[in-house]
Design a protein that fits this description.
single chain, mainly alpha, 165 residues, globular
Length: 165
């Protein structure tokens, strides 16, 4: 049990450090960066309660906010992602597979994992970038930011999943 929390805390600090130091400076055509830190929320076991998941989401979002000078934007979007994650898992997984597994290509299958990942990324990135822009006047800019950010984040997560496989 304690080893599990040490592992989570190590992932937490590693992903926050990676996000703040490297990935916040990586952009496609000047649009939004990849938000790879949400991989932390997506990889929790299905047995973890929604409240615990939301607390972890708030903490990692707040840590990224503190170092990125974005007051509460990442925290709000990761808490919302943590809130809807169990619903997305039930939507894309079969009922008999919901027993204490960590979502991955191996446990869910490639098709279901890709659908789960795209839906999660869309929800998180849409909320985060809408809060950041805080206006619907430049919808094209918002849509480009969402698409490019999702593309980068999807690429990074699939690369890690491919290495783990």
């Amino acid at each position: 049990m304690i080893i599990n929390y040490i592992h989570k805390v190590a992932w937490f600090f590693g992903l926050v450090l990676l996000q703040v130091v490297i990935l916040n400076n990586l952009h496609i055509a000047g649009y939004a960066p990849p938000f790879f830190y949400i991989y932390f929320i997506l990889k929790f076991d299905t047995s973890v309660s929604r409240n615990e998941l939301m607390i972890w989401g708030f903490l990692i979002g707040l840590a990224v906010d503190v170092f990125s000078n974005t007051p509460g934007m990442n925290a709000a979007s990761t808490v919302f992602l943590a809130f809807v994650r169990p619903l997305l898992l039930r939507l894309f997984m079969s009922r008999d597979n919901l027993d204490n597994i960590s979502p991955s290509m191996r446990s869910m299958g490639t098709g279901a994992f890709v659908k789960f990942l795209i839906a999660s990324l869309f929800i998180h990135h849409t909320m985060l970038l809408t809060i950041e822009l805080f206006s619907f006047t430049s919808m094209l800019s918002l849509l480009l930011s969402i698409v490019f950010s999702m593309l980068l984040t999807f690429t990074f997560i699939m690369a890690v999943e491919g290495i783990k496989k």
